């Protein structure tokens, strides 16, 4: 996935299912898919762990604000140092809020959530929100 630009092709539909948690650099992978191969729709699936809640967050928080990190709707990604489910290729497990935030951050708009771990997305006109 880190070399998708070599395909030199865009696709109307990109299936990104069961991949995210096996990647050492998952947000980079989503950025590259947005930039190089996603022409329209992305179907994203990831194993999710932690809170199933999701909430709208403010654009920014004061440096001294620490309580926000304890809220169940805050985006969290769990790092797997050794193995999870007896699989050493499992690196990251996001909660639902984190999966949604990563998709938005990479420039996708979530249009449907048909199953617990599946998100239907389209490329947003705003891109990855101008963040460096």
Short summary:
The chain is of the alpha+beta class. The protein has 2 helices and 6 strands, in the order βαβββαββ.
Quick tags:
alpha+beta; 4-stranded mixed beta sheet; two-stranded antiparallel sheet; 2 helices; 6 strands
Structural summary, described in words:
The protein has 132 residues and is α+β, with helices and mostly antiparallel strands. 17% of the residues lie in helices and 27% in strands. It has helices at residues 26-37, 96-106; strands at 11-17, 38-45, 77-79, 92-94, 108-115, 118-123. The strands form 2 sheets. The chain has a 4-stranded mixed sheet. Strands 3-4 form a two-stranded antiparallel sheet. It is globular and about 45 Å long. The two termini are 21 Å apart.
Strand content: 25-35%
The Cα radius of gyration reads: 15 Å
User: H/E series, N to C?
Assistant: EHEEEHEE
Q: What is the share of helical residues?
A: 10-25%
Number of strands: 6
Question: pLDDT average, as an integer?
Answer: 93
* Major sheet summary line: 4 strands, mixed
| Class by SSE composition | alpha+beta
**Uncertain spans:** none
Overall morphology: globular
Give the termini distance in whole angstroms. Answer: 21 Å
- Total number of helical segments? 2
Strand order of the largest sheet: 1-2-6-5
């Amino acid at each position: 996935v880190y070399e998708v630009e070599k395909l030199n092709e865009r696709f109307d539909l990109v299936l990104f299912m069961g991949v995210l948690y096996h990647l050492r650099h998952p947000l980079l992978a989503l950025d590259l898919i947005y930039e190089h191969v996603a022409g329209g729709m992305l179907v994203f699936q990831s194993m999710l762990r932690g809170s199933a809640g999701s909430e709208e967050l403010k654009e920014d928080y004061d440096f001294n604000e620490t309580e926000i990190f304890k809220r169940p709707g805050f985006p969290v990604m769990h790092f797997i140092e050794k193995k999870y489910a007896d699989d050493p290729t499992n690196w990251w497990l996001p909660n639902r809020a984190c999966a949604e935030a990563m998709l938005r951050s990479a420039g996708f708009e979530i249009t449907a959530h048909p199953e617990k771990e599946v998100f239907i997305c389209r490329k947003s006109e705003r891109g990855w929100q101008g963040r460096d």
